[in-house]
Amino acid sequence: MTTPPSTLQPIRRPIRELPDELISQIAAGEVVERPASVVRELVDNALDAGATQITLRLQAGGVRLIGVEDNGSGILRSELPNALKRHATSKIASLSDLESVGTMGFRGEALAAICSIAEVSLLTRVDTPDEPHGWLLDGRSGELQPTARAPGTTVEVRELFFATPARRKFLKTDATELAHCIEAVRRHALARPDVGFAIWHDGKLVAQWRAVAGGGMDALRQRLADVLGDDFVQQAVALNWPLDAPDDAGAQRLRVWGFAGVPDAARSRADWQFAYVNGRYVRDKTITHAARSAYEDVLHGHRQPVYALFVSLDPARVDVNVHPTKIEVRFRDGREVHQGVRHAVEAALAVPRSGTTPEPVDTVPAPAWTPPARQDGFAFRPREPEIGHRVSDVAALWGYGSGEASILRQAQDERVAARTDFVSTDHLDSVRAEPVEAPTHPQPLPTGDWPLGRAIAQLQGVYILAENTQGLVVVDMHAAHERIVYERLKQQLDDQQVASQPLLIPATFSATPDEVATAEDCTEVLKTLGLEVTALSPKTLAVRAVPTTLAQGDPVELARSVLAELGLHDASTVVQRARNELLATMACHGAVRANRRLTLDEMNALLRQMEVTERSDQCNHGRPTWRQVGMKELDALFLRGR
Description:
Blueprint: H1 20-31, H2 35-48, E1 53-59, E2 65-70, H3 80-83, H4 95-98, H5 110-115, E3 119-125, E4 134-138, E5 144-147, E6 152-158, H6 165-168, H7 174-191, E7 196-201, E8 204-209, H8 216-228, H9 230-234, E9 236-242, E10 255-261, E11 273-277, E12 280-282, H10 285-294, E13 307-312, E14 318-319, E15 330-331, H11 334-350, H12 403-419, E16 454-459, E17 463-468, E18 471-476, H13 477-494, E19 500-510, H14 513-521, H15 523-528, E20 532-537, E21 540-547, H16 555-569, H17 574-590, H18 600-612, E22 626-630, H19 631-637
Helix pairs in contact: 2-7, 7-8, 10-11, 12-17, 13-17, 13-18, 14-16
């Protein structure tokens, strides 16, 4: 009869010190997950050595051989015996160095961990008269012998996981492991356009990215085109966001720059989202949430945005020593980073592609992760329309006059409550478009080169057809007008301070320890959102005030949602999302409806408004508002030139 597991007595084992080799193998389990992990660590070391050309050679997807060659500074012969020892590094020497790490690697445990599970050899040479040749170090025996080599270092890792066969069984096919290795190098290549990369597999060149001369946004744009393809660059907008506050003494201010894909370039998967902090590729929830929130009202459905974002800040304000593979970081002020990333992406996406977009000033120093200099004229400044039917407010676009405000109020009273359960519209009576009288004698449209062209017809009362220099423009008039009204309402409400309404009877609820801690730590942040949440006991919170626009909803649900986002991302967009949902509903019901016949002057007025309205390329629900049909596409339909 078998004894039940619950009745078995645990075997007592003595406490003892583990041998060094077992310690390294345990560390390897954290650092080395697959061949791509080794590639990442070795490329980090090559970049820290100042290499400008890195070559990766693989066999069997990196299982049989991983070789990384660079032209960096090399390693002195006197330092070679320590190169493969645990916790031996040239990157840091004190606690202050650890708290302000400026290199890719710093722990000094990667090479020792790799040596414990594979056969490692290191060939290096420094460019000094004292060492006219290179040295070859065998990782297993420690034998050192002279050899020929140009200045730089070559690290070869053979038979990965030969010492731990059980780990080798978890590896995938050679093709899968090769794909992961290429992805690891690609992430480095995006951050360092000044460095050339080449990848060989089984004697064949599978990927190569040459170093880009110069620096700044042009170099980054070229590297993005080389690595991700021309389509990415053509469907992305440059962003460059420095803070307006003066620099702290001796500290770098937060900078965010890079490229963000337009909403039309969104993908079904989040596989083209690259975020870097001080040149290091990271997967950070704060940055991801901030970028996603910037796309909230321009993405359709569950599409995922594409971007390559670079964040630079004082190394002392970010902790990179929180994950064995250094893939995660922790910010000292996560809310500042969240706001910086969000504002940077929002500002870039706000510029309508239907208007003229100036290129950012390119004054970035040569290092790839050093941010671009502040540019004075980055804000979009559209040219003034010269058309005759000139209107300065959307209320006059369709001749509604003062009736526009009544349409919005009717939408508030009848339909808003059905979509926003905890939204009140009492505070929004002042948020409406003031009527402006249209000119009585409209002048003809001049023959200027308008981005959206000249209106020529209306199709089925739904679409506006316009002609520009590239061909035909098709505009969804309801979607376009909806966005125009929506942006006007948002702007008017943004100009007002978030008003807070105290509750006659505070709403109490049982809270988790995390919610209580977040409420106590983020009191000022909650006040800026119009919320007042206080702790009544270690397990109870009370909501004493809510934003006036959301006063009719459930204060407990609102508080829980805000606290959850603050706990995860140090910032919350719950209040703004609820407010924007209300305004989107108002705009949807206040916009011109289908089957309304428009004059050419009215159609041209809408086109000119689209060219100067932020985010006018998508409606409030993320659907496109206009499409360009080029002459080549039209010629192809009629087989012209064939």
